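sorry to bug you again but im stuck and you know this stuff better than me. what follows is a protein written twice so to speak, once as letters and once as structure tokens for the fold. mainly i need to know what kind of three dimensional shape the backbone takes. anything you notice is useful, everything is just below:
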Amino acid sequence: MVADLRKRGIGFTSLHENLDTTTPGGRLVFHVFAALAEFIRELIVIGTNEGLAAARARGRVGGRPSVATDEVIRAARDLLPDPGRSITSIAKLLGVSPGTLYNHIPDLRELRAGALPHQLEAPAN
């Protein structure tokens, strides 16, 4: 932003730090501050990545715990072929979102397709 202001011939003066980018000394101090801020940010990123790698090495996994336990998935698979139940009602019954069912049951659509009433299925020749 300050570089864009400078291209347009506009100086930046910080009253708090007593910094004026219209002077060569002010520009030098500003660039030193910017370089230090970038350096510190990179150190934080490196430290974070090293900490995550060390946690993974100890068997820790980050993120929110999944609500889709094996029991929930098994119960959903048992209920999906029932044409009287919608995916939304099954999800509500199991205490999960419909998206959770779609994400954790790759063949959900096939299980639902097998639940078509017999009068809607193509006749066998």
Summary: The beta strands are 13-14, 19-20. Residues 116-121 have pLDDT under 50 and may be disordered. DSSP finds six helices and two strands in the chain.
